[in-house]
Amino acid sequence: HPPVVFSIPTVIPMIPGYYAYETILSIMKFVFIKTDTSKRLELLDAIFTNGFNMIYILIAITIGVSLPLLLLNKSSVKQL
């Protein structure tokens, strides 16, 4: 079997769903709260913190999956 068969299914549970959920939840609360300025600043901080954590984790997962497959690939799938 090609190496992709073993590497991709193991990465799927690593998607940072918690950070994505918290980002969307903070965005929704930020949109609907109109009066409390301090709460809006806390939500804005939560939006960026959770959003950047999610993006950085996705980038790290992508690099962790693709780099070894690209660098250590000594033979192609066609040759196997």
Short description:
With 80 residues, this protein is mostly helical.
Calculate the terminal CA-CA distance, rounded to whole Å: 8 Å
- Overall domain count: 1
Share of helix, binned: over 70%
> Main β-sheet: number of strands, strand sense, barrel status?
none
Mean pLDDT across all residues, rounded? Answer: 85
Work out the helix count: 3
Number of E strands = 0
Question: What would you say this structure looks like, in words?
Answer:
By secondary structure, the chain is an all-alpha fold. The protein has one domain. The chain has helices at 3-11, 17-32, 37-71. It starts with a helix and ends in a 9-residue tail after the last helix. 4% of the residues are buried.
Helices and strands, with pairings:
Elements: H1 3-11, H2 17-32, H3 37-71
Helix pairs in contact: 2-3
Structure characteristics:
about 80 residues, mainly alpha, about 75% helix, about 0% strand, rod-shaped
